[in-house]
Each structure stands twice: as C-alpha cells, then as structure tokens.
Amino acid sequence: MRVFDNIRELYKKEGLTEVIQGIGRWIIYRSLSQNRRNNYYTIIRYYKYKLEFDSVAKPKKRIYIDLDKVVNKDTSQIFPGKKGIGYIQDGDWDKNKQPIDEIELYEIYDRRFIQNKPWSETGLLETAKEIIKNKNDYHNCTNIEEVLEHRCLYIDKLYNKINNEGYKSQKEAHDFLDEKKHTDYTPLEILVTISRGGEILFYTGHNRMMLAKIIGIDEIPVQIMARHKQWQRIREQVAAGKFEGDLDCDWKLQEHPDLQDVL
What we know:
Blueprint: H1 2-14, H2 16-30, H3 34-50, E1 63-66, E2 72-74, E3 87-89, E4 97-99, H4 104-114, H5 124-135, H6 144-165, H7 170-173, E5 190-194, E6 200-204, H8 206-215, E7 219-228, H9 229-239
Parallel strand pairs: 3-7, 5-7
Antiparallel strand pairs: 1-7, 2-4, 5-6
C-alpha cells in the first residue's frame, strides 16, 4: 500500500506525466541486476556532483596505491554498498578508524599463513559458527563441515595464487571463484575512502586486503567509495593551481594517487 500512497502523493504534486515517468523508472530499476543498479546509482550521483564541483573524478577510475601507506580501516561504514560508489560527503565519518592489523580477519589470516596454524586454531571456525547460528549461513556455508570444505579451502587456494602469481584485478580473479559457494562476486576492486586530509582508508574487500597485507604486496588497484568534501575542495584547488602547503597524510602532493588526474 505504501507504493500506491507514494504514487498518489506524486500525482497530487507533479501531475500524471511525472507519475507515468516515475513508474517507468521504477520498472526499469526493478528489472536491473544488482550490479546494474549499482551502476545506475553511481552514474546519477556523478552527474549530480558535477553540478556542484568542477573536478569530479570519474567514479569508476582505478588508482594504484602503495599498500604500506594504507594502515587504517574506515569503520564508519555509512556508505551503502548496494547504492554504488563515488560519494562526496562532509561530516566526521573519516575520524572513525581502526588499524587494519587489529581487525579480527587479519589476525585469523596471520595465524593461518604467518604462524602456519591449522584452521581449527585460527579462530575462524568459532566466528563462522556464531554467524551461522545468527544468520543461518557463513559465505553460503550452512555448517562447519562446509566451511572447512569450501571456505577454508578457497582461502588457502587464493592465498597461494596471490603469493605465487601476484595480486590480480577482479576481472582476472573472477575465473578463480568457487561458484557453488561464492556467488557474491563484485566487479569492483577493493574499495577505499579518502579523508579530509588525504589519508586513504580501507573500506571493504576484506579477503583481498587482508591477504595482500599478509603476503606483503607492494601495490594494488583500488576504487574510491567516498571522498570527504574537504578533500574534494583540495582536488579543486590543485586543479586550479591554487593549493599551497602540504597534505595532512603520508603522501606528498605530487605523489598522491587521487590527484594524478588533476595535477
């Protein structure tokens, strides 16, 4: 009934033409896959920001980052993964941080691949058991036997593949997935956010980030979930040749991965 109430309100405010167009947009939206919906949100957001800013980055651009300089995770998690990427947002969300090496999954993978412990001694099975209890499945596994047979084996193989062949892009890595238990593939790279001072914060893509850190990969491709509005203003100043001073992060101005398109 809520849908019909919304249509009624739209009709009262905007008229029949807007109602018909709105229904058309809704039908098109509902017919899209989740990846296409993400693209829809991303494109709309991009053109909206172009009305406000002069130097809006292409939302799906990939940047290559020195992994040693990414040490914190953005724990705000305020940007919905099902609504695309490329946000520009003010506020204190970028102050919510946690060191990556203190994340539980990092510690689990450290025990497995650095300390060479069996999966039963890493803490993963206890975590999986609790998640299955609360949510009925853990990465499409409904019991611990499946976790060991599918999830743990998959992570072992993924570690060995990255360790032996190097870090791959998502397009290259797609062929490696166990389709039976890993149906959550995304074409996006690891997602990061950029703080007001230019610090690059890990956002999501936990398996890839933790394994890359554990293995010691030097450089990886990422895409940007969100930029702080103050950082966007710095991009504008750099593009106009008006920025003076130093960045408040580990990167120098000329080296920052998110400024290469405006320098």
